[in-house]
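Thread amino acids onto this structure.
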């Protein structure tokens, strides 16, 4: 019921910049959070950054100060601005949306569902 469409990946030289976009569509009652993960060849998928629907953004230590996550609530889109890229940033980047199910009252347990984009390749090389 929810679809995430990513764009913005590509090849960039060390020290360069890229901006990733992820647009969400479908039946969405309430966003809990949106974020970005990445996975390099032979490695496990790791969290890069996430931003709650009403809170401050969180970043992995390896990207803090270089990457910036933002959102456009009108367009249901989340962005990842990546600056000062280095070869260690090379990976497939995945958009993730965490969506809360409807509940009759706020005191009930919150049920969350995860949705993933198809991934976009980011390659940093000279």
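Threaded sequence (126 positions):
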């Amino acid at each position: 019921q929810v679809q995430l469409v990513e764009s913005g990946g590509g090849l960039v030289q060390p020290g360069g910049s890229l901006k990733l976009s992820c647009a969400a569509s479908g039946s969405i009652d309430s966003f809990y959070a949106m974020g970005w993960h990445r996975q390099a060849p032979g490695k496990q998928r790791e969290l890069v950054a996430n931003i709650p629907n009403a809170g401050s953004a969180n970043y992995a230590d390896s990207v803090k100060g270089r990457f910036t996550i933002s959102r456009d609530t009108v367009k249901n889109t989340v962005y990842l601005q990546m600056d000062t890229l280095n070869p260690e940033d090379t990976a497939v980047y995945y958009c993730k949306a965490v969506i809360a199910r409807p509940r009759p009252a706020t005191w009930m347990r919150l049920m969350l569902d995860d949705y993933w984009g198809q991934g976009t390749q980011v390659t940093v090389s000279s």
